[in-house]
Amino acid sequence: MKVLHIGKYSPPFFGGIENFMMDLGQACAAQHVESAAIVHHHQSGQKFDKREMDGLTVYRVPCYGQLMFAPVSPAFLFYLNRVIDEFKPDILHFHVPNTSAFFALLSTKARALKWVVHWHSDVLGDNSPWFLRAFYPVYRPFERWLLKRAKKVIATSAPYLQSSLVLKQITNQCQVIELGIKPREGTPAQARLRGEHQPLQLLVVGRLTYYKGHRFLIDALALLKSQGLTNIVLNIVGGGELYEQLQQQVEQLGLSSQVILHGKVSFDALQSQFVQADCVCLASIERTEAFGVVLMEAASFAVPAIVTDVPGSGMSWAVQHGKTGLVVNRSDAQALAQGIEMLYRNPDQLFEFAQAAHQRFLQHFQIKAVASTTIELYRSMSEQ
C-alpha cells in the first residue's frame, strides 16, 4: 500500500499540522506503508525538489508567498500529477485547510485514487477576519466537493467533530483519530521542580495571528505586575502578522523585561525553549485552534499547560484541568492571570502537573498508536 500525503509545508518550517503530518507519514512508513508527501516550499524562489526524511519521501513545490494564510502555488496541479506518476500512490491523504488540495479535484489522475481528508480545523471561527468571511462563500463549494469525494474524513477529537458546522453534516463519513507526535531526540523524561526564587518560565509557540490570543496573555502579565508579581517571564516563539502590534503592546505596558518575542527560531532553539519552560500557555479564542499540537510537544518534555475553554476545541481534552494543567475562560486576561499566579505560588502543584502531563503523553499521544489506527482506516478503504 502506498499513501501520498498532501499538506502545506514540511520541516524546517515549524507548524503543528506540518509536524504531525511528517510524524504520521514516517510512523506509517515504519509500519510498512510506503509513504510520501507533497508540500510547498515555505520560502519563495525555490525550485521543485525531492528528499528523503526518515523514511518519508517529501516532494516540495515552488511557492510564491501566501494569500489569506494559504500558499500561492499556481503550478501545484502540474507537480501533483508528476508526483502521482512517479510515486504511484493507492491513497491520497489530504491535510486541510489547504487550498492547494483543491487542485486534486481537477486531476483525472488524482480522482482515480481513494481519498481520505484529515480535518484539522474549520476555515471560519467566531472571530475570523472579515476577509476570510468574505472569501469563504467562494471556498465552500470546493470544500464540499473535496469532502464528497473522500471515502473517509478524520476528525482530531470528539468535541471538534460534535461542534464543527461542516463535519456535523457528514458524520457518517467521519472517524475520530486523536493526534500524536513522536518524542524529539534529547527530550527530558522527567519533570523538574522550580526553585523558590526562580522566575516562572512561560512559553507560547505558534503563529502570531488573531485566534491565538497572545494579547490576553500579555494583559495577564500586566495585571500580575500591577499586583507586584513580576518574577515571571513569557517567551513568545513564532512569526506572523501581529508581531509589531504585540511588540508595541509589550512596550506600552512596560513589560519588555518580562515578555520576549523571539520570532521564528531554529529547531534546536525551540527544543531549548521547551527544556527551560515551566508551563506552556495556549490562550486561543476560537475553534480555529482545533487541538494544539504544541500541547503534546510540551507534554513530551514533561511541561504542563494552561489552555482556554474554547467550545468544541480539543485543547480542554488534551489538557485535563487540575491534573495535567489548567483550563481557564477564553478571552479573559483576569482568568489567565489567576491561573498563572496559582502555578507561581504552588511549585509542588506545578511539578505534579508536569509529571501527569508526561504520563498522559506516554499513554495517549504516541504517534505509533495513531499510525496503527490510521493504517487500519486505510485498509478498510482499500476493501471498499
Topology readout:
Blueprint: E1 2-6, H1 16-30, E2 34-40, E3 49-53, E4 56-61, E5 66-67, E6 70-71, H2 76-87, E7 91-96, H3 108-111, E8 114-119, H4 130-149, E9 152-155, H5 158-163, E10 174-176, E11 200-205, H6 214-226, E12 232-237, H7 243-252, E13 259-263, H8 267-276, E14 279-282, H9 293-300, E15 305-308, H10 315-318, E16 325-328, H11 333-345, H12 347-364, H13 367-383
Parallel strand pairs: 1-2, 1-7, 2-4, 7-8, 8-9, 9-10, 11-12, 11-14, 12-13, 14-15, 15-16
Antiparallel strand pairs: 3-4, 5-6
Give me some keywords for this one.
single chain; 384 residues; alpha/beta; Rossmann fold; eight-stranded mixed β-sheet; six-stranded parallel β-sheet; 20% strand
Structure description:
The chain is of the alpha/beta class. It has 2 domains: 2-182 and 367-383, 3-Layer(aba) Sandwich (Rossmann fold); 200-364, 3-Layer(aba) Sandwich (Rossmann fold), CATH 3.40.50.2000. 39% of the residues lie in helices and 20% in strands. It has helices at residues 16-30, 76-87, 108-111, 130-149, 158-163, 214-226, 243-252, 267-276, 293-300, 315-318, 333-345, 347-364, 367-383, and strands spanning 2-6, 34-40, 49-53, 56-61, 66-67, 70-71, 91-96, 114-119, 152-155, 174-176, 200-205, 232-237, 259-263, 279-282, 305-308, 325-328. The strands form 3 sheets. The chain has an 8-stranded mixed beta sheet, with helices on both faces. Strands 13-12-11-14-15-16 form a 6-stranded parallel beta sheet, sandwiched between helices. Strand 14 (279-282), helix 9 (293-300) and strand 15 (305-308) form a beta-alpha-beta unit. Helix 1 packs across helix 13 (367-383), helix 6 packs across helix 11 (333-345) and helix 9 packs across helix 12. The protein is globular, with a radius of gyration of 21 Å. The two termini are 14 Å apart.
